[in-house]
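Morning!

This is the sequence you dropped in the shared folder:
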Amino acid sequence: MHGWTRRRCWLDELRGTKQTLMKHREKKAVPRLIDVASEAGVSRMAAAHVINGTGGDTVRVSEPTRRRILEAARRLNYHPNRIAQQLRGASSRMLGVIYDTASTAVMWARLTALDREAVRCGYRLMIGQVHSDPEGIEEYFADFFGRGLDGIVCLFDPLRSYDVTLQTLIDRTARVVFFGRRTVEHAACVRVDTADGMRQSVGHLIDRGRQRPGLVVWNAEDQRSVYRREGFLAELEARKVPIDARRIWAADTGPEDPSQETLDRAIDELVVQLGADSLIIDDDVWAVRFIQRLKDRGFSVPGDVAVIGYDNLEMGTVVDPALTTVDQDHEACARAILELLLEMINGGGEPSSPGERVIKPKLIVRQST
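The structure's back. Tokens below.
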């Protein structure tokens, strides 16, 4: 009797363990699209249209139904298998982004705006970073296209030395959009009208009675500096203000924070020797440093010297005085980039509309002018 009791207890324990394992397996079962459709009370085709973007115009789903399907997917913790979908010829719903590590604060603002717009359009981003590295760009292109990504956004500054490399990487069917200079003849690009930002800045200073503005750039050979110089000179000429080319000052350095020696050299040459009554600086980081150094040296801002930056970074709102600056409208840039890419993705090649979109910047006026 004692042996039978032990055997029955052992069998009961075994049954309990088996039931526990079965329940565990049931809980761990991977939810399927048909499960989402059943949970939401819709057809599998409707669920696929909302979650996978299939069906095109042949499937129509109301907004309340769309929300019900997405909520059902969330409750079931359903995630579509993108790799399996790609093997069946479906879109990856992924975009590659190659960005430059220079001007990190600006680049993150640009990436954030691009990510928001991509999500709104039903896409995710895969991101890679480079800096003055043509080989790295080639590797990212090969990796992104090899993974079947739907398109690529290039946020790095396309230096002239990259032209040959990029020309060999991009043919007329490649779905690539550049931010900045159009470096490949048939490639699409979105750029901010930097020259217009300079014209707005110069016009604002002249309207405030400043007749001797100076322009500070990182490097005279940089493409952005060329646009800044063009806009700066064009507005001075249009306003019939005497032009002194010596008041265009180049540090001949990179975008890293300027040293005190660099700041003093610029102030000595532009303000002390040439009598500049205002300075338009290459970016907000430099502009904030200039405000601090001018004050250290006994100059009043904007009393003696007005200062304008570029990029509209948050730091410009906390410096004293708050910085007047140029906003590049990252949101508008992101929308234009996605519009061009989606035209190419849906059309199988070049965009149907002009392949260059120009975004107008906006001058943000604060106390430094």
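Headline: The two ends are 100 Å apart (CA to CA).

More detail when I'm at my desk.
O.
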